[in-house]
Design brief:
Elements: E1 4-7, E2 12-15, H1 24-33, H2 36-53, H3 60-75
Antiparallel strand pairs: 1-2
Length: 89
């Protein structure tokens, strides 16, 4: 049976993640308050950010930039903007 969480991103009850996908306190917060749907939305944004900014997960600064964007997107309602990207209408 699927877990239900109150998704902080969608602002409604939704299917929760099956397990903690991210380490530490932020990971616990995501597991407890972010739905599968919201996580999938973030994954798309993350790929765009990594590609646009040519981020390397080997660099601490790049991982921090991504983490800050993730927290802003999932919990603070901040949109991820990628220069030159126009969403399909």
């Amino acid at each position: 049976m699927a877990r239900t969480v109150f998704c902080e991103y969608l602002k409604q009850d939704a299917e929760g993640l099956d397990f903690q996908l991210y380490p530490g306190d932020i990971g616990t917060r995501i597991y407890n308050g972010i739905s599968k749907q919201a996580w999938a939305e973030w994954q798309k944004k993350q790929v765009m950010l990594i590609n646009e900014h040519k981020l390397s997960m080997l660099k601490v600064e790049d991982r921090q930039l991504l983490e800050d964007a993730m927290v802003g997107f999932l919990f603070e309602g901040k949109e991820v903007t990628v220069e030159g990207y126009v969403p399909k209408a």
